[in-house]
Amino acid sequence: MILSPDTRVAVVTGASSGIGEATARTLAKQGFHVVLGARRIDRLETTAAEIGGTALELDVTDEDSVDAFCTVLPRVDVLVNNAGGAMGLAPVSEADLDDWRWMWETNVLGTLRMTKALLPRLIESGDGLIVTVTSLAAFSVYDNGAGYTSAKHAEGLLHRTLRGELLGKPVRLTEIAPGAVETEFSLVRFKGDEERAKRVYEGMTPLVAQDVAEIIGFVASRPSHVNLDQIIVKPRDQANSERFHRTTD
Ligand code: NJP
């Protein structure tokens, strides 16, 4: 990857769909060279070609994949830790250990791996920014959601801890905690069950990926002394993780 020395580089994980893809497009419009990472490389390549970015295969649960991805980056100014999601919806008494492992590996350890690998270069940039996309689930609990809420709480705590540890270093930290956003999130959670995924957004107006991407774009375009610490964003139709206004109710 050969770039002019003054080109700022933004890395977006989970850029093959939803919030990550929309964020890649928004940051490219703001002048960043965007490096898009995810497992579905074909999708990344399509978007990268459209926005003049770079597509690189990345599995945040795999140490070797993270190493290979990070090694080729010439510099890093912005890291968007977005790869993640939920798998399943079950009470603790019926918890599927593999689903929990997936959520912890992807949301928590994935964010840890990427952040740890890229921190030196973010500091070196002289004006680094780490955006971590957590969730309302990082602030509350709901029935049948402990696998996801515990993973998002842990991801949030990892991110928030850095705010103190990096004090005095030129790196800003922003946590974005969205409510319901209509992406592939529910399709993944319900393991490809399209009908069930659709019902999550029925009778309400959810956020769309672009809504969140624009907020990340705003964060990334503030002057370097301004740190937006946490942003919680929900649809108007959502009060909390469990209460929605639905026309179908
Ligand atoms: O979901 P989706 P969102 N290594 O499924 C990638 C949080 N959030 O955009 O690898 C690398 O469209 C996957 O790519 P691929 C949520 O927890 C959402 O809504 O090709 N990448 C895809 O690009 C998550 O942290 C809602 O399958 C991996 C992306 O992650 C973030 O928002 C609410 C990966 C997921 O895109 C973006 O999710 C909320 C891996 N091992 C928080 N595994 C919501 N949508 O309602 C997955 O509170 N990815």
UniProtKB/TrEMBL annotation:
Entry keyword set: Oxidoreductase
Gene Ontology molecular function, alphabetical: oxidoreductase activity, acting on the CH-OH group of donors, NAD or NADP as acceptor
Keyword Acetylation in annotation: no
Keyword tRNA processing: no
Pfam families: adh_short
Family matches, as InterPro entries: NAD(P)-bd_dom_sf, SDR_fam
Highest taxon, organism lineage: Bacteria
SUPFAM superfamilies xrefs: NAD(P)-binding Rossmann-fold domains (SSF51735)
Recorded family membership: Belongs to the short-chain dehydrogenases/reductases (SDR) family.
This protein's name: SDR family oxidoreductase
Species of provenance: Rhodococcus xishaensis
Taxonomic path: Bacteria, Bacillati, Actinomycetota, Actinomycetes, Mycobacteriales
